[in-house]
Amino acid sequence: MSKPYKLFLGDWILETGLCDFEQGEVPLSATYHIHDEGGDLIFDMRWTDKENETHEMSLRGEPNGELAPFNGGDLVDALSITVVSSHELNTAAAMNGVVLMSVIRRLSPDGQQMAVLQEVKLPTGEISTNKSIYLRK
Questions:
Q1: Residue 111 and residue 85: Cα distance in Å, rounded?
Q2: N or C: which end of the chain has fewer CB within 10 A?
Q3: What residue spans define the domains of the chain?
Q4: pLDDT for position 1
Q5: 73: which DSSP letter?
Q6: Could you give the percent of the chain with pLDDT greater than 90?
Q7: What is the pLDDT of residues 16-74, one digit of tens each?
Q8: Mean pLDDT of 110-120
């Protein structure tokens, strides 16, 4: 089976000095572990905030571009994972069919750097954007 997302698989480390956040603060450190299992893509994220508290989050879904049920509590109830190309991998999170957050991940030509653009639709209707750069570990 072909895995058009294979260049994204592996471990990534945040380059904090290359981040630009409109919402929240840039973490002191962060890692991304992207792997696949049984046809699903899994994104394991871990970060340490400025209070030195560690947080973890994991997303899992089939990379077919379709919204599927997701247990996001009161924030989101569906998630989609879309493989745009070998160098672009996107996710979207929705509540009641309305996309509230999208994440665009783009790899550098050599596959050693991942730019992450996260857009969140705020309750006011405005869009807040966080830009992060991760380097392959």
A1: 13
A2: N
A3: 6-136
A4: 58
A5: T
A6: 92
A7: 999 999 999 999 999 999 999 999 999 999 999 999 999 999 999 999 999 999 998 88
A8: 97
* pLDDT 10s digits, 117-131: 999 999 898 999 999
Single-letter amino acid, residue 31: T
CATH class of 6-136: mainly beta
- Helix, strand or coil, per DSSP, at residue 8: helix
Task: For the full predicted model, state whether its pTM sits above 0.85.
Answer: yes
Whole-angstrom Cα distance, residue 128 to residue 100? 11
| Inter-residue contact 49 to 27 (CB < 8 Å) | yes
Residue 86's alpha-carbon distances to 26, 59, 128, 132, in angstroms, are 27, 20, 27, 19
Q: Could you give the C-alpha distances from 72 to 65, 80, 110, 130, 132, in angstroms and in order? A: 18, 13, 34, 20, 22
